[in-house]
Amino acid sequence: MSRSHRSSALASLLAAGAAVVLAAGLSGCAGTAEASNESPESGAAVERKTLVLQDSTSYTQLPLRFGVEKGFFDDEGLDVEFTQVQDAVTGVATGEITLAFGPTSNYLRAAALGSPIKIVSSAFRSKGPFWLIARDGIDSVEDLAGKTINNVAAGSSMETYLVKILEESGVSRDDVTFVNTGTADQAYGSILAGTVDASIIHQPFPALGEIEGETTTLARGWDFLPSYHTGVLIASDATISDDPELLERALRAYFTTYTYTKEHYDEYLPWLQDQLDTIDPEAVAQAIEAEDEIWDNNPDVDFDAIADTQEIEIAVGNQEEEYDAEKFIDLRFIPQEFVKPFSSPEPKAK
Question: pTM here?
Fold first, then answer.
C-alpha cells in the first residue's frame, strides 16, 4: 500500500473496527471487578478495571498523576497503579504494565523484531522535544567539533536527533566524541562538572541552564526533524486480544488528562512546580511554555511520518530495512473525539 493511501485506508477500518471492539468489550473482557461505576451515557454499571502504568518523575509524564488526582481515570472506571519497571517494552510484553509511553522508532523496532506488543496510539505529542545544550562558552553547533557530547544511548531517538543536528550544521559524528552519562539530571550535572561539553536533553534542564547561566541552548530537535515521529503508547498483544475495553477507557482518560492539562496551565503549573520542588519554579514554567507548540494531544498516528522516521533511522544506521508498520500499529482503540488533522512544525530555515 502506498504511503499516500495508508491513513485513508486505516480510517476506513476504524469505523468497522469500532463496532467489533465495542462488542468484545461488552461481551465480558478480562479484569477483576472490585466495584462498579455508572456509565454517564447509558446509566449502566461499568466494571472497574485496574490500569498499571510505569512510574515516572519526568515532568512530561507527571500529568498522568495530575489526571488521577482530578478523577479523569476514575470517571472511566479505572483504578490506576504505578510501578517501576526496568524496561518498558518488557514490562508491557509480560503484563507488568498495561501501557507505556516512549520512542516510536525503538518500539516499532521491538515489535518488528518479535516483541508481542503493538503501537496503539500516538502520545500527547509526537514531535521531538529534545534540546541540544552546551556549557558556557560554546555558542554554536559548529563549535562542538572536537568536543565530548552526551548522546543518551546508542541507537536512541535522541541520538538520531543529535546526529542530524550535527550533520545539518556541518559537524560529522566522527568530529565529536559520544558518551552516555545517564538520565537527564545526570547529563545536566555532567555539563556543570565539565565531564562533557554538551548534551541532547529534555526540559526543564535547558530552561534551568539558561536561568542559571550555566548552559546555552544550541538547537531544538523539531526544528531539524519536523516529520520524525517520536512518541507513542504501546500495549501487549494479550491485552489487545483479551481486554480491548481497558485500552479504550485508558486512552480516553489519557487524552482527557493531557487535553485538560494543556488547557489549564494556570491550575497545572503550580501543581507541577510543587512536584518538581528541587528545580527553580521559573525554569519549570519556561519549560512548559517552550514546548507548547508541539503538544498537540492527537492520538492518531501519521503513517507518512512513520515512513519518514524509518527512512531517517535507516540513514543513521539504526535500522537495516523498512518495516511494514501497519502490522505493528493498531488504532482501533483511540478516542475519536480527540483525533485531529496532522500537522508538523515548520522546518528550520536553511
Answer: 0.85
C-alpha–C-alpha distance, residues 117 and 9, integer Å: 22
Q: Which residues contact 6 (CB under 8 A, 6 or more apart)?
A: 303, 304, 326
pLDDT tens for each residue of 116-158: 999 999 999 999 999 999 999 999 999 999 999 999 888 899 9
Contacting residues for 318 by C-beta, under 8 A, at least 6 apart: 105, 109, 155, 160
**Of 214, 206, 228, 212, residue with least CA distance to 291:** 206
Rounded to whole angstroms, what are the CA distances from 169 to 140, 141, 151, 165, 252? Answer: 9, 6, 17, 6, 41
The answer to whether 190 touches 181, Cβ cutoff 8 Å, is yes
| DSSP 8-class letter at 348 | P
User: φ, ψ for residue 209 (rounded to 5)?
Assistant: -65, -40
Backbone φ and ψ for 317, nearest 5 degrees, come out as: 90, 10
The residue among 120, 88, 124 whose CA lies nearest residue 106 is 88
Domains in the chain: ranges and CATH: 3-127+228-338 (3.40.190.10), 131-224 (3.40.190.10)
Output the DSSP codes for 22-60.
HHHHHTT-S---S-EEE-TTT--EEE-EEEEEE----TT
